[in-house]
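G.,

No rush on this.
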Amino acid sequence: MSVRTTASGTVAALLGGCVLLPAAQAQAAAAQDSPVVYAHRGASAYAPENTLAAVDAADDLGIAWVENDVQLTKDGVLVVLHDTTLSRTTDAERVFPGRAPWAVKDFTAAEIAKLDAGSWFGARFAGARVPTLTQYLRRVERNRQKLLLEIKSPQTYPGIEKETLRVLREEGWLDRSHVKHRLIIQSFGAESVKNVHVQRPDVVTGFLGTPPVADLPSYAKFTDQINPSYTTLGADYVKAVQKLKGAHGKPLRVNTWTVNDAAKAAEVAGFGVDGIITNNPDTVRDATR
């Protein structure tokens, strides 16, 4: 065995014709093999989900990718909210009594902007608001983060794909750099994913769910990712997905959700998933790197 140390301290070791990578290169290679970590609704274990505070919490943890959900208000404004009703994560029932079931689609953007979307999570977040997609994009951009955007309940909001793409375009998120490196659009609705792909074939898309293996080739025609719940996942399924090439001619990727503990993160990483969506991005990152 011969060992050579450079002036910078890099060590290369050769043993039996095998090259042992310098420490920095080995760490980089390991990082490349680790699943990408996506902060689910922002770092939602640490701040109220889908708020700007949750975006910032992910940034504070050093997490590049955040996931969010978009829906349309009564007057056609895109807002970032997971549930199709306002009850769980805002004070809509108190502010607007008698408006049951407090569906997002029945409220204007101005009405939703009045709601407290933080107090339910903790007193220090009192006064946090439901952001519009425009506000959310600007915060993600300010933090130099990346976005996994979910179109929520598309059957409830005809035309939401077109409106989402319009806002993304206006905010500069459909230029070559963003499309190539910083944006994915996903949905549980296959037709919604198809609509995005037809309207902007360059955008990376993901389908949320676990289609039967036999049906995967049909999904590969319009999506780049198959993103299933971890409860439906195994190594064989991951391999079956990754064997196929997606809409952009690259192997289909698998991002699984919602994994919040270290043991489960290590398990799904062992299945070979490409990404893990989590409320606890620091826990998952540390368990899989």
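When you get to it, here's the other one too:
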Amino acid sequence: MAVAVVALAAAGCGKTSNESTGSSSSSGSSSSGKYTGKGIGLAYDIGGRGDQSFNDAAYAGFQQADKEFKVGGLDVEPQDGESNADKVQRLEQMAKAGYNPVIGVGFVYGPAVGEVAAKFPKTTFGVIDDDQAKAGNVADMVFHEEQASYLAGVAAAKTTKKNHIGFIGGVDIPLIRKFEAGFVQGAQSVNPKIKIEKQYLTQTAQEGGFSSPDKGENAAKGQIDAGADVVYHAAGLSGLGVIKAAAEHKVWAIGVDSDQYNQDSLAKYKDWILGSALKNVGGAVYELTKSVVEGKPLSGEVRGDLKSGGVGFADSNPKYQAMKDVVAAVDKAKQDIIDGKVTVSTQ
């Protein structure tokens, strides 16, 4: 994608990543002839593009939609220590410029999306991981993260040699506690007496819990030193440090959101990435864009679960695939959740 200097980079709107003009006409119309917007407006969460996890999953959806519908778009990085007013300004400028849909990546955009959507009723807005912005032109794209985390817990408990595993959350908030709850329940379904280390890197996002690989690395080292031989993170960019520490100590890491085994920047650690608890953020971005392009915009709560393919567990590592008993246990757990035999707790 070509880098372009655009007006949105000014006025405290955050750092512009890329603008794609697509291969359509300058008006941004799709081949279907129904779409008249300028393209997708994507505003990243803390950590920004390059986190190999949450934000990069959103960008993958952006790329897929741009490739298929030829609509183009703009993706913008957050500022350090920015306020809700900064987010409001960013989304407003995207909407004014004609981007449609405009998507806030992360629960931190919930209030801003609610405020801006009211001012631009003809623009479709999306917010990922938040369901508070209630409006006819807003899609609240949320997930059953606890279900994917349950599978991660089963995989960890079946793989550990020490009956000792760990969970590292980026920030101590209800959303990330869903990851912990599912992971613990899944692990205890295999071994009720398993020892589980639990740690949150910070109490607030402003302290860097989702954007500090050094914090993740130090936390993982502590859990590994305590005896954990499988460590699962739900920590965004900070999780890169968790994976690095696990690989260096030759214990298993479990990634999150994206299939971290297949992330280029993690290639040298990939042999120690057992799998990843997936959240189809990219699919959410793609589907919302598709709905707008086709003239039937999604709105209201759009929730992804195991049954719909909105969450899952990545099995890309051949070493994981070779563990037939682990794979069978994870597959059974997945089916039990889909069939309603297992209900996963969110807290």
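DSSP finds ten helices and 13 strands in the chain. Residues 1-13, 21-32 have pLDDT under 50 and may be disordered.

Enjoy the weekend,
O.
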